Structure formats: structure tokens, C-alpha cells
Amino acid sequence: MPLRIAVIPGDGIGPEVARAGVRLLERLSALRGLGLEFDWFDFGADRYLRDGTILPDGFMDRLRREYAAVYFGAVGDPRVPGNEHAKGILLAMRFELDLYINLRPCRLLDDRLSPLKGKGRKELDFIVLRENTEGLYTGTGGVFKKGTSEEIAQEVEINTRKGVERSCEAAFAVAAANGKRRVCMADKANVLLHGHGLWRRVFAEVSKKHPEIEAKAVYVDALAMDLVRAPEVYQVIVTNNLFGDILTDLGAALTGGLGLAASGNIHPGQVSLFEPVHGSAPDIAGKGQANPLAMALSGALMLRHLGFDAEGDLVEEAVRLQVVDGAHTPDLVPALGGSAASTEEVAAQLLERLEALVSRSKVQP
Ligand code: NAD
Ligand code: IPM
Ligand code: MN
Question: Which ligand 1 atom is the nearest neighbour of the CA of 330?
């Protein structure tokens, strides 16, 4: 049975890294008989500006019916300053496909990439689970008396018991599946008494069901400090949509930068979306400077979601080896030294590395 993957490269560097990622997965699929098939869709700023299409009617149903996963580049374009197409593409898929788990591993691949004195691979290895369907992201709210001196702008934070509970449950499941023993929930319950009070109560309830895992609730400001001061304390962090967005850029900075940060937008057992944490990077788009490794690592998360754990391991190992002794794009030069290579050069080396690992692999497909 072929497993169909919808590829949405999007804007800016999205297509550059998507090409590299798909080529890698196509090769892996051929070598290991995975049966992956890739269909490309041109949704993004160009299409939106050309004919007004954000996503066509019925697209979500089509994804549910025909696709196992979405492999996504990035959206965002200076020609669309209101970012409405990005909301209508990416956020719409997160919401309408109910991809409530935004899984963002923050793992250092090489000690030289650490920006923290004395903290290396052993210390920098945590997973953030960001609630992905509610919080401050639902667009609930409005503007009153717009443009006047009495203007009121309101953004409502939505926290539902169902949403909080399934996120907390997922955090404990992720901990168990990854051999982690600690889960930390980050909120601002000292100020946001209602919504984050709910997070506190639900987290306490859920943690009682998992006595084998140490559970702790922390304030997000203290956590932001602590992630820099003592990152080794953290193994799994669960938090709301906005805090998760911010903490995972911090997590990326601690583990080699956005060029290496991968994510999954997941509803277990259903079509899910895999994308790098980074955006469309208009500052480097079209220059061949984009690091394709975050996209490749997002592909590894996708492989795991599809049940191809051994292949996910192979891709992750190929990326690690590429970082350790391969060519690298300009973003990694300050940490790794040497001269900068292009997206294409890194992608080609990564492909060779993966082929070599596959041919040596003892795990049968
Ligand atoms: P960004 O992630 O696009 O870029 C931030 C910085 O990181 C830039 O200097 C960029 O050059 C660098 N960078 C990002 N990815 C890189 C890569 N793979 N290799 C090397 N360097 C990389 O964030 P931004 O500049 O704040 O946003 C640009 C646009 O992207 C905005 O429209 C924003 O809304 C959008 N965005 C989209 C997503 C997404 O699609 N998931 C995520 C974040 C931002
Ligand atoms: C991310 C991005 C998105 C978010 C934007 C582009 C809507 O920053 O995936 O981290 O805020 O979730
Ligand atoms: Mn973000």
C-alpha cells in the first residue's frame, strides 16, 4: 500500500529545504521499500497573490481521506504583511486536522554547537510538547473603535479541559516512549489565574496517574531562565501554544539554531504535519544558504509517525554525522568553523551518508 505524503513547500526557503528533504525520503523509501509517494501542492504567497487561493475548498477532507502525512516547508512572505495566507494554511491545518501535539525535540547533536559554557550533548536533550489547537492562537477576540484614541484590542486565550488534559497525557506518553523520567509543565498561573489555574489542576490530576514519572509545574519566566542556567534538569516540557512557540525558539538556539530544529504537528493515528521550526527566512531565501537539516529531521519525525522507527533512526544518524564531520551551511559556521557550503552541497552529502548507513544497516525493512 503506497503511503501518500502531501508536500507543501510554501514560501521563501521552504521550497529549497523541501526539495532536499523529499529527495532524501524518496531515496530512503526506494532503498527500504517503504512505498512513500509524494504529491506536491503550490499553496503559499505566490499562489495567494496570483489567484487568491489560500487552501482550496475540501482540501482538509482530501488530506484526511488520501494522505498519511503532510511534509511542510514554511510560510510567510513580506508581500503579505498581514500573514493571512500563513494563518489560512498552517494554522488552519493545525486546527482543522486537530493536530493537538506540537512535538519539538531540542537535542544537541555536537558539543561544539552548544552556546552554553560547560553544557554539551548530555545536558541539552529535552522535548517540548506545545499545545497546538487553542491558547492565544484561535483568533478569538476583536478590535473595537478601531483607529480611534479609544481603540480596544482583545485577544482571548482559550484553555479547555479537554485540550489541556490531552496535552498533559501526551507529555507523559512522550516521556515513557523516550525513556524520560521527568515532565515539567510551564505556565503563568501566578497571574493568569483562570486559564493557567486550569493547567495546574489538570496537570496535577494527570500526573497522579503516572507515579513513575516525576512531575513538576513551573512558571514560564523561571523556566526560560533555567533552560539557560541548568538545561539538564529538563526532559519533557509541556506548555500552552504561545509559551511553546517562544520556548522552542529558545530550545533551537540552545541546540544549534533554527537550521536544526524539527517539529511534528501530530494527532496520533491521524494525518499529521511535519515541518521545521523555522520560517521562510526571507533574508536568505534564494541564496542557497538555507540549512536543510531541520527539514530532514522533521522527515525523521514523520517516518516515526508512519511506523518506520528504524528509518527515522537512520535519518537522524545521517544528520548527526553530517553535523559532526560534513559540510555545513553558513548558520553553523560560527560554531563549527570551516567555510560555508550550499544547501545543495549539504543535501547531496547527507544523501550519500544515508545511503551508506542503509547499506550497512542490519535492521531489515
Ligand atoms: P525565520 O525562522 O524565518 O528566520 C529567523 C532567522 O533564522 C533568520 O535570520 C533566518 O535566516 C534564520 N534561519 C531560519 N531558518 C534557517 C535555515 N533553515 N537555515 C539557515 N538559517 C535559517 O523567522 P522570521 O524571520 O521571524 O520569520 C520569517 C517569516 O516566516 C515570517 O513571515 C514568519 O511569520 C514566518 N514563519 C513561518 C513559520 C512556519 O511556517 N512554520 C515559522 C516561523 C516563522
Ligand atoms: C511556528 C511559527 C508559527 C507559530 C507562525 C508562523 C504562525 O512561529 O511554527 O513556530 O507561531 O506557531
Ligand atoms: Mn515559532
Answer: 20
